[in-house]
């Protein structure tokens, strides 16, 4: 991103370049107060003289801000605009899939995760999240395949082990579920709900 930023700024008048540089920095910096950060991102998005990549970056950042405050409609709008501007940006589709999943629109979430995976099949989070959506639809076989793919990409992906353990428990494969819970805990997952789920599976084993 830094190289792209320098290329963008080199083609602009000094005063304009300085202003854009400041807005890019504010838009990306999570430590900046949300109101100022939102304004910086919006300024970049509205600047049609900017490179598409910079505007897409600003849209993704603003979308994540909306998503973090529960503004799903606004987040979807930003991610959709980003995807329209750059149809090969996997994060636009992945983030939009996350919003749809949060809204309970699992089939739409899967369609977006599918596109993200088409663009980048090496990201464990893409498979893990699609697996969650499959599981929410009761498609356990597809869910476990995606959790397995996530683990294959990143053997230290604790969330994928937890999710696969839950799916295994749902299918009655309690011994395998315990192994996955144990692996997740060994990787540092320290969630009371995980411990409780593991305890429930142990009880089912007798």
Please describe the topology of this protein:
Blueprint: H1 2-10, H2 14-28, H3 34-46, H4 52-68, H5 72-85, H6 90-102, H7 106-119, H8 124-136, H9 140-153, H10 158-170, H11 174-186, H12 192-205
Helix pairs in contact: 1-2, 2-3, 3-4, 4-5, 4-6, 5-6, 6-7, 6-8, 7-8, 8-9, 8-10, 9-10, 10-11, 11-12
Task: Please describe what this structure looks like.
With 206 residues, this protein is an all-alpha fold. The chain is 79% helix and 0% strand. It contains 12 helices and no strands. Helix 1 packs antiparallel against helix 2 and helix 5 packs antiparallel against helix 6.
Sheet with the most strands? none
Query: Which class best fits the helix and strand makeup?
Result: mainly alpha
What is the end-to-end distance? 54 Å
Q: Give average pLDDT, whole number.
A: 92
Assembly type of the shown chains? single chain
**How many distinct beta strands?**
0
The run of helices and strands is HHHHHHHHHHHH
Count of separate DSSP helical elements: 12
Tell me roughly what share of residues is in helical segments: over 70%
Radius of gyration: 20 Å
- What fraction strand? under 5%
Q: Which regions have little confidence, pLDDT < 50, spanning 5+ residues?
A: none
